[in-house]
TrEMBL record:
<protein>
    <recommendedName>
        <fullName>ABM domain-containing protein</fullName>
    </recommendedName>
</protein>
<dbReference type="GO" id="GO:0019825">
    <property type="term" value="F:oxygen binding"/>
</dbReference>
<keyword id="KW-0479">Metal-binding</keyword>
<dbReference type="InterPro" id="IPR009050">
    <property type="entry name" value="Globin-like_sf"/>
</dbReference>
<dbReference type="GO" id="GO:0020037">
    <property type="term" value="F:heme binding"/>
</dbReference>
<dbReference type="Pfam" id="PF01152">
    <property type="entry name" value="Bac_globin"/>
</dbReference>
<feature type="binding site" description="distal binding residue">
    <location>
        <position position="172"/>
    </location>
    <ligand>
        <name>heme</name>
    </ligand>
</feature>
<keyword id="KW-0349">Heme</keyword>
<feature type="domain" description="ABM">
    <location>
        <begin position="2"/>
        <end position="92"/>
    </location>
</feature>
<dbReference type="InterPro" id="IPR007138">
    <property type="entry name" value="ABM_dom"/>
</dbReference>
<dbReference type="GO" id="GO:0046872">
    <property type="term" value="F:metal ion binding"/>
</dbReference>
<keyword id="KW-0408">Iron</keyword>
<dbReference type="Pfam" id="PF03992">
    <property type="entry name" value="ABM"/>
</dbReference>
<keyword id="KW-0813">Transport</keyword>
<dbReference type="InterPro" id="IPR012292">
    <property type="entry name" value="Globin/Proto"/>
</dbReference>
<dbReference type="InterPro" id="IPR001486">
    <property type="entry name" value="Hemoglobin_trunc"/>
</dbReference>
<dbReference type="InterPro" id="IPR011008">
    <property type="entry name" value="Dimeric_a/b-barrel"/>
</dbReference>
Length: 255
């Protein structure tokens, strides 16, 4: 990935035409397979200042693919009148310094923190132990198991990294599934019982939280099933995954 920044200084009286031209140019840009995403922003302090940010798959694919490809003509036709207004046009490589702020709560906070996940796994494993299909898999379960899985879930959903620090992180979790030969009916029962338990303990039931929660549970259980098959060779070392809101964070109307 590479980020291109184009800085414009447009006479204020041309602003609306400039923005309209970019709204049209956005169509061929969005259709380009080399373009990851783009955004045009306008300077608040100096309203003639604009920055266009385009993330490309690579500088090479931008310059050789897009620029020499079939969509560039339609894109450039719209913005040609503003080429002389460009003050800077360069590619910038990511440095790895990036992250999210705290404006949006984590799924962990939204769920109610560590206690919420502890309540969830207590009730869940009570049901699991009595279940005809998956109960036998857990017959020799460590008494601390519900608490360990609560630690895992808390960490995944944005809470403190306790499973990594205190319980051996991803490699330990993985080692617990290896060779178990989990079948699809068992995986599905695990999911069903967890979702029942989520209702029973009153985890937030809003569409956004549940969509993210179920997304992780589907992903995680399908991985657990794959990793548990005879002869599976999963990645041995990895961090505990972190799961976020995805495409639907809590909705905040724009003011
Ligand atoms: C999102 C999906 C899953 C998560 C997050 C998860 C999490 C975990 C964790 C963290 C452990 C290790 C606990 C420890 O530190 O000792 C574990 C162990 C285990 N898991 Fe899973 N698991 C998932 C799916 C499944 C599924 C689908 C099954 C089977 C139907 C399963 C069966 C087991 C069993 C049998 C153990 C060993 C329990 C014991 O003997 O103590 N897991 N799981």
């Amino acid at each position: 990935m590479i980020v291109e920044y184009i800085r414009y200084r447009v006479p204020e009286e041309s602003s609306s035409e400039f923005e309209a031209a970019y709204r049209r140019a956005a169509k061929p840009l969005a259709d380009a397979p080399e373009c990851v995403d783009y955004e045009l922003t306008r300077c608040v302090e100096e309203p003639g200042g604009y920055i266009l940010r385009i993330t490309w798959t690579s500088a090479e694919e931008h310059l050789r693919g897009f620029r020499e490809g079939p969509l560039f003509g339609a894109f450039f036709a719209e913005i040609r009148p503003y080429v002389s207004a460009i003050e800077e046009m360069r590619h910038y490589a990511p440095t790895g310094v990036r992250g999210q702020g705290s404006a949006v709560p984590s799924l962990y906070e939204w769920a109610g923190g560590a206690e919420a996940f502890e309540r969830l796994t207590e009730v869940f494993y009570d049901h699991v132990k009595k279940d005809d299909l998956i109960g036998p898999l857990f017959a020799g379960m460590d008494p601390g198991h519900p608490a360990y899985v609560a630690m895992w879930l808390s960490e995944v959903f944005g809470g403190p990294a306790r499973y990594t620090r205190e319980r051996g992180g991803y490699p330990h979790m993985l080692s617990q599934h290896i060779g178990k030969g989990i079948g699809e009916p068992q995986r599905r029962r695990w999911v069903n019982l967890l979702l029942d338990a989520a209702d029973e303990v009153g985890l937030p039931a809003d569409p956004e939280f549940r969509a993210a929660f179920v997304g992780y549970v589907e992903w995680g259980t399908r991985l657990a099933l794959a990793n548990s098959q005879p002869g599976a060779t999963p990645i041995a070392q990895a961090p505990v995954p972190r799961w976020g809101w995805g495409v639907a964070p809590p909705y905040v109307p724009e003011s």
